[in-house]
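Hi P.,

Sorry for the delay on this. The queue was packed all week, but I finally got your sequence through. Input first:
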Amino acid sequence: MLAISSQRGFNVLSIILTIVAIALVLGIGYLAINPEKRAADKRNKQRLSDITVILKGVEQYTRANQTIFPKDITLDEEEVCKLDAQDCSGLVDLSVVKTYVGTLPVDPTISSANSTGYAIIKTTDGHITISAPHAEYGAVVKVTW
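Then the structure:
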């Protein structure tokens, strides 16, 4: 007499192992594909966080001073000077916001002794825009208040 097996198809363990193997291959593939772009995206996110901190400091200063913006912010976009810089010529001095931000963040790829690598402008309609001109992969990183 022939024995007929009653087991058909896959068992639960083999399905789980297959799913784990696929997830592992996809995870390794994700890490291997364009790590430079992922690193740039991470730096761009840091830039967004940094310029938001600067903007909040400008906003708090302005509210505390009867809606008067820091005096160096003009209609021309200029980079922001570091708080500990030796020379702020050609840069916007935001040392008045130190009380509100503690220290001004610096772009992750900038090694300037004086510039933060972030730019600020007062728009013609009275808003303040801070941008990260060194954003990577064509990203536009800016905030406006």
